[in-house]
Amino acid sequence: LKLFKDKKYEDARFMFERSIVYNPKDSSSYLYLAKIYNIEEDKKKEEKKYEDAKFMFERSIVFNPKNSNSYLYLAKIYNIKEDQKKEEKNLEATLLIEPDNEEAILMSMKIALEKSNYKKVKDLSKTFKQVCKKLCDENKDILENLANIEPKNNESWSKFKQDLNYRFWFT
Fold first, then answer.
1. Given a cut of 90, is residue 119 above it in pLDDT?
2. How far is CA 29 from CA 8, 48, 59, in A?
3. Phi and psi (nearest 5°) for 133?
C-alpha cells in the first residue's frame, strides 16, 4: 500500500500480484491492481496523445514551414518528454521565424540557465524585456535565480551581477 501511495506503481503492481497468488480472495489487492492498471492505461493514452499531437505539428510544418507555433508546441512536447536537444532545436526555429515570441524566449532562458550559460540568459533577458507582454514577471524570477548562482572562477561574474542588480532595480 505504501508503494502505491508513493506512486511507485510498477513495484506496487508486483506486490499486489504476489499478494493475490498467496491470497486469491484478497479484494483490496484486486482493487489496487485495478487502480494501477487504470493509471498505467491513462499514461499510455496520454503518451499516445502527445505522439499524435507531435505528428500533427510536424505535418503542419511540412505544409507551412514558417508556422512558428508548430515549432513552439513541438518544443513544449519535447520539454514534457525531457528531450532537451529537440526542445532547443524547435525553440531556435520558433525564434528564427518569430524573434519576439516571448514564450520561446522564456523557455530558451530556462534551458540556458539550467546549462549555466549566463551570457545567453543575459542576452535573452534583454530581448525578453523588450518584447514581453504577458510573462514579464517570469523574467524577474529567472534573473533572481541567476543572481543566486555564483559560478566559481569567473571574473566577469561581479560585473554581470552588478548589471543584473542595476537592471532589476532601475529599469
1. no
2. 15, 28, 45
3. -130, -45
